[in-house]
Amino acid sequence: MKAVVVIGEILVEIMADAVGDGFHEPMALSGPYPSGAPAIFIDQVAKLGQPCAIVSAVGDDDFGRLNLDRLRRDGVDVSSVRIDTNRPTGSAFVRYRKDGSRNFIFNIRHSACGFLQHSDTMEATLSSADHFHVMGSSLSSREFVELNVKSALSVKARGGTVSFDPNLRKEILDTPGMREAMMQILAATDLFLPSGEELTLLTEATDDRDAVRELLSMGMEAIVHKQGAGGVQYHDASRNIVGPAFQVEEIDPTGAGDCFGGAFIALWLRGMETDAALKMACAAGALAVTRRGPMEGTSTLAELDEFMNTTKRLS
To answer: Among 37-46, 169-178, 213-222, where is mean pLDDT lowest?
Structure first.
């Protein structure tokens, strides 16, 4: 089976229990929960039995041990997660507003996962990748951008594959050199997984249909356009497939897209028929939102089968 590797942040998430606006007074909180978009993604890959690893760092603290214990338990290779004795594990405090949007207070840039330290173990892990996944949320510094670009091109050069989940804000693209780096990653991408308006974030086209044509002309194999409760649209050179979402009660949407991506990529690498892989990935995303906590929603194949057999899809 093909080995999947991702570079990026490992965090804890601490959630406000009450809906409201911001953190302006003392309040009840729940957590810490294991989190970080790349960590959620790779945990879902591991839960489906795919060999996988993450390159990151955590502090020498309980938050770091919480994450490493979860990732190891679920089958992720964490040998390239550095233990930083000088910086704490990254964190995210989250509070939901009444309209479903969220307030975040992050400590990423100044935490353990905000600093790169090259090692032989890290190089060995990156060299072992058959598939490399790029997450836009992890492109937080020039060092991280350069390492992701280098790793993507290296995997492609030895016959592997690359996927890219942009998860980028438009203003980040104004950082000097960022758009050029993103275009390098796009040129190496086999599987592109944008959400919502991210489909046109890196294209000259502003219309979705024209953007799909432009992206496919770059040489990528397929686009999987995530649309939350609206399901997913899959595009390749010969097909357009609509995958309806599942009907569930949303408790916590954090990590749903990462669970979808982890599931679809694992199944795509195994050669599963596209319709079936899309259905199971939609189930992974839907099941994720029914559980409180960002990594609490990752699922095994058996859990996904049971969910699909008992839950209706939206038309």
So the answer is: 169-178
User: How far apart are the C-alpha atoms of 202 and 88, rounded to whole Å?
Assistant: 34
Both tokens of residue 157? 């050069």
Contact 66, 59 (CB under 8 A): no
Domains of the chain: 4-304 (3.40.1190.20)
Phi, psi for 241 (deg, rounded to 5): -125, 130
What is the distance, to the nearest Å, from the Cα of residue 34 to the centroid of all Cα atoms in its chain? 14
Which residue matches tokens 């173990």? 121
On whether the CB atoms of residues 70 and 295 are closer than 8 A, the answer is: yes
| pLDDT tens per residue, range 185-202 | 999 999 999 999 999 989
Identify residue 97 by its one-letter amino acid code. Answer: R
Q: Which two tokens stand for residue 98?
A: 């009444």
Question: What's the rounded Cα separation, in Å, for the pair 55 and 115?
Answer: 11
> What pLDDT score was predicted for residue 171?
64
Tokens 């960590």 identify what position? 39
